[in-house]
């Protein structure tokens, strides 16, 4: 099985972190405003060199090998408990 | 003393217009024919001209100056001056004033459109572009301010601009014949993409996304995608954004992702607002196809906040955590703003439907990881297996409300007093008893669509999933490698959405898996 890609440094995606964010003051955790319009660009045109088309950004956009074999974390522990409580044989 | 036949400023104006026409200089003509109230009111010559024109019938002057060889051109200039006369400093002071101004502009467009459509109409191509941008953005702004539910300005704009759009395609161009094709050589088609983008903006706002299909298909028929690079980058980027969103709406995630990636690459790094909009849908499409956003992507300034939204979903998928997924979508849990965000961005239903198969994959894989050690203890020859009763136990656990202490979940769900909104969640098993047949459906879907390599063996104790010896759980992204996987470009499809649509399996060309349900669970929600 493939091992997980390097763990996220910027956000701990576990439940506890999501719950923590909800305890922040009134402003929702989302820093995204009510912004659903694709605005017009400030200029009409620009050079190829200003785009990423020919200069791929440093760092890939996607992680494709994210499967994780670690079964020591909380979620797996909960599941293990559940299996113990419901033996099949 | 008789009034001079033409006021001096008008004569000058008409001379400039005539020059532009004679030199076929559509940009110069556009500079003469200012349209936005701001630009008109800011221009001293135009202010003076308007003052001269008040109470003066300019039609004869225009006819005299521009000649009779092209009456249509005269009509447009006459109409233009009528429009200009109607623009006053108070156009934005009330909804009524804005509406009056809007309808004056619409009148002008009504004269311009048929003339643009004529063979000589190419001279107006830059005017059309400017008019389109102004007309579309004003329509949306005025409807938003007036809060008129029927959105009359947007409706009007859609009709007017569609006519203009169709006119651009009616002209034969020989763009590709030139040694190096140029935008100039495209004639009226130079306005096609701008018009398309403005129409998309209106269609999306008016929730008539289906109408985009005709636009895309007409553009494709005109072979424009093969020379899209000729158009200004802003137009290319915007076009790819809307095209990508339409693919997403039509559940064509492979096409959606590649198109949105192109849009993203075309935008400059400083165009944060546009990149943010693109990134939202690009990341959603990628996730459905088994690609998670990298740290590098999420760290970019335009992606601020997106990690908070998407990473919990990625985490849930990785683990097979159905409960975590419901929290990530805001269906339960402390963070109700999350659901608002997903609904507002129109991602809620698609993610819910399309991530389900990935969650099942994750859960089955996790169940295997947790139970395989049992197997090595026993003398075990042959392929690895997974007793599906284990999956049933875990699925039941994860699909029910979080229990404080209740070892026997099965049988209690009808009575359980949860604080969650069971009624809201029509599209999953949440709150229902998960049966073995549900697990089998999920496993069959996973096997059929290639997420798991193996087969189901029927044993006296119950069904057992027999797994391939190596790589029984190929990485999801592998399944959608473009070389192996082509999506039909069914932009005109009357695809309705939902799991019982045409896209039951990847082979029918959609990208994104589905759980096929056979047992009597609640009907799946509809899209949109």
TrEMBL record, chain A:
Single Gene Ontology BP annotation: mRNA export from nucleus
Source organism superkingdom: Eukaryota
Name of the protein in question: 26S proteasome complex subunit SEM1
Biased composition (Basic and acidic residues): 9-26, 79-89
Family recorded in the similarity comment: Belongs to the DSS1/SEM1 family.
Function: Component of the 26S proteasome, a multiprotein complex involved in the ATP-dependent degradation of ubiquitinated proteins.
Acidic residues bias locations: 32-43, 64-73
Gene Ontology CC: nucleus; proteasome regulatory particle, lid subcomplex
Subcellular location: Nucleus
Region: Disordered, residue numbers: 1-89
UniProt cross-references to Pfam families, sorted A to Z: DSS1_SEM1
Keyword annotations from UniProtKB, A to Z: Nucleus, Proteasome
From TrEMBL, chain B:
GO molecular function: double-stranded DNA binding; RNA binding
Annotated GO CC locations: transcription export complex 2
Gene Ontology biological process terms from the UniProt entry: poly(A)+ mRNA export from nucleus; post-transcriptional tethering of RNA polymerase II gene DNA at nuclear periphery; transcription elongation by RNA polymerase II
Full protein name: PCI domain-containing protein
Species: Tuber borchii
Lineage, uppermost ranks: Eukaryota, Fungi, Dikarya, Ascomycota, Pezizomycotina
